[in-house]
Sequence to fold (75 residues):
Amino acid sequence: MQKIRSTFTISDFVIDELNTLSSELKEKKSHIVENALNMYFDYIDEKIADRRLDRLKSGEEKLIPADKVFEELGI
Fold:
């Protein structure tokens, strides 16, 4: 996997926490941030899935049968 350098702004409190954790764990800050973001993305994926399921249950959204999708795609 390719690593890409990025710049962003976060609060001084978060930076202080990150520096403390990095020092305590003897891990690079970028590694801690990457792991934290991956965990957050997993959490958000679950929230989105729950929202979609609720919308299906309420009838706001409908499922399209796979055979219809495959037919439209010519598969």
Observations:
- The first helix runs from residue 12 to 25.
- Helices lie at 12-25, 29-58, 66-73.
